[in-house]
Amino acid sequence: MSTQEKTLEEVLQQEEVLTQNEIVLYNDDVNTFDHVITTLIHVCEHTAEQAEQCALLVHYKGKCTVKTGLYDDLKPRCSMLLEAGLSAEII
């Protein structure tokens, strides 16, 4: 086995260890589009266009992944969404 093959194998193994989680936002009959959009901009650092698209997907499809990343980054963001009255979970 050459050095190049061994290095490539090690890199592939490291990538498998890092798992991406998702915050999924669910539809409800309580929150307005403006509130959802404003909250996504603040909490998930979305642009206005991203937040609006997510709000529309949640409304018409029932749910939408609004942020992906490592669990430690997503946990406080999900908590902020919940505190804002939105329905969300990390999967």
TrEMBL record:
Q: One matching Pfam family, short form?
A: ClpS
Q: Could you tell me what this protein is called?
A: ATP-dependent Clp protease adaptor ClpS
SUPFAM superfamilies, per the entry: ClpS-like
What start-end ranges are recorded for coiled-coil regions in this protein? none
Q: Specify the Adaptor protein ClpS core domain's residue ranges.
A: 22-83
Q: InterPro entries recorded for this chain?
A: ClpS_core, Ribosomal_bL12_C/ClpS-like
Which terms under GO biological process does the entry name? protein catabolic process; proteolysis
Give the lineage. Bacteria, Pseudomonadati, Bacteroidota, Flavobacteriia, Flavobacteriales
List the Gene Ontology MF annotations in alphabetical order: peptidase activity
Keywords carried by this UniProt record = Hydrolase, Protease
